[in-house]
């Protein structure tokens, strides 16, 4: 795949993943009622044969080869050193950690809002989850149509979703909260697509695999930290106040990231050390 097609490929991947979540949840609910949970698990296991077949069908000759690190730049330590020297990557990872930990753990805050201020219970949480998945599909379509996926798009999406998150904590009804969740989910997919594109374009080609590993580690650690933290905030402050506080924090961090990126921004497609 040519490098210029990377943003659209990432957007397509997000779109397929989000559409699969929407269709998968709906189909699973129907099958669970029709044939029972044990058969549903068996069907799910069989579907992995399609995944294996798809991987085997990949045309290796059409893959874009990456540069190989020389011996002095090989290994995990060299990869971490590359990230440490690249101010753009450090800013992206810091922003991604805050957004993922305080702004993306909606499995916690949606449940707290549904069972608390909104009074919607389990049914309301199920509805919000479905709306979030639909929003993610829409976000994938938006990201696929964007001609450039640079830092301005990332900052704009992060700022808007942070503001919407703060406002969502003030919503008194399920419909209004669901409408904001739809927009927040769309923004989250745009953020993920831009972030995935930038961490590859703004790193040395021979370091790209290790940079992506760091990116995955940051996302995983953000989920591990943010879930308990948001749960504690919902318990102590109330779900609505927790959403407002977390949204304002992510909005402030987005502003700091915008300032940092304007100083240390690497041109799009650059593979040099920053």
From TrEMBL:
Residue stretches spanning the membrane: 27-52, 86-104, 124-146, 153-171, 177-199, 211-230, 242-263
Pfam family, one: MFS_3
Keyword Transferase: no
The keyword Membrane is assigned to this record: yes
InterPro entries: MFS_trans_sf, TM_effector
Signal sequence residues: none
Subcellular location: Cell membrane
Main location class: membrane
Domain of life: Bacteria
UniProt keyword terms in alphabetical order: Cell membrane, Membrane, Transmembrane, Transmembrane helix, Transport
Membrane association type: Multi-pass membrane protein
PANTHER family: INTEGRAL MEMBRANE EFFLUX PROTEIN-RELATED (PTHR23513), STAPHYLOFERRIN A TRANSPORTER (PTHR23513:SF11)
Name of this chain's protein: MFS transporter
Organism listed in the record: Actinokineospora soli
């Amino acid at each position: 795949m040519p490098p210029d097609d990377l943003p659209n490929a990432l957007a397509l991947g997000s779109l397929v993943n989000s559409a699969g979540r929407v269709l998968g949840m709906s189909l699973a609910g129907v099958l669970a009622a029709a044939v029972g949970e044990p058969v549903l698990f068996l069907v799910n296991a069989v579907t992995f044969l399609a995944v294996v077949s798809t991987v085997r069908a990949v045309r290796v000759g059409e893959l874009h080869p990456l540069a190989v690190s020389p011996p002095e730049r090989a290994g995990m330590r060299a990869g971490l050193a590359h990230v440490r020297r690249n101010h753009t990557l450090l800013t992206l990872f810091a922003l991604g950690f805050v957004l993922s930990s305080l702004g993306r753990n909606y499995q916690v805050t949606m449940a707290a809002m549904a069972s608390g201020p909104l009074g919607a219970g389990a049914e309301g949480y199920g509805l919000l989850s479905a709306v979030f998945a639909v929003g993610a599909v829409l976000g994938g379509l938006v990201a696929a149509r964007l001609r450039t996926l640079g830092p301005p798009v990332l900052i704009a999406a992060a700022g808007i979703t942070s503001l919407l998150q703060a406002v969502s904590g003030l919503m008194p009804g399920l419909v209004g909260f669901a409408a904001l969740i739809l927009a927040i989910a769309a923004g989250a997919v745009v953020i993920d697509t831009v972030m995935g594109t930038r961490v590859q374009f703004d790193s040395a080609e021979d370091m790209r695999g290790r940079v992506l590993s760091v990116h995955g580690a940051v996302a995983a650690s953000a989920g591990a930290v943010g879930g308990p933290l948001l749960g504690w905030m919902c318990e102590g402050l109330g779900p609505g106040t927790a959403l407002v506080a977390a949204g304002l924090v992510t909005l402030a961090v987005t502003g700091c990231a915008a300032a940092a990126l304007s100083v240390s921004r690497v041109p799009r497609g650059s593979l040099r050390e920053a």
